[in-house]
Amino acid sequence: MTDPTPEEYTAFVTPESSGERTTFNGCEIHVVHHDAGTEREAHTHGEEHIIFIRSGTMRWGVDGETHETTQGDTIVTPANVPHSWEVIGDDPARVVCVTAPPEPDSEPGET
């Protein structure tokens, strides 16, 4: 793994940022915008995820348990545990996702 160059990421993420991804040794940080009505059915990853809700309202399912989440909430999805999400309401959702170790094949926006 090589360290990202300054041209590959920004140190500042603002509400206007559509999405950012920064990889550090041992983890990756995604800043993701999900449009209203967007959802992802139950799936698993081989990595741990910690998700911080920055704005919007989402319904998260983790290992069969479901919660409605809003700004300030945190979701933890352990490796290989089924989880799903849906943006509910009329507003988009913005999340920060810390993944450890970094996802080998993911693309920005696929939290």
UniProtKB/TrEMBL annotation:
Q: Which UniProt keywords apply?
A: Metal-binding
Which residues span the membrane?
A: none
The Cupin type-2 domain covers 32-98
Q: Which organism is it from?
A: Haladaptatus pallidirubidus
Q: Where is this region: Disordered?
A: 1-22
Name used for this protein in its record: Cupin type-2 domain-containing protein
Indicate whether Cell division appears among the record's keywords: no
Q: Which residues form a coiled coil?
A: none
The protein's GO terms of the molecular function aspect are: metal ion binding
UniProt keyword annotation of NAD present: no
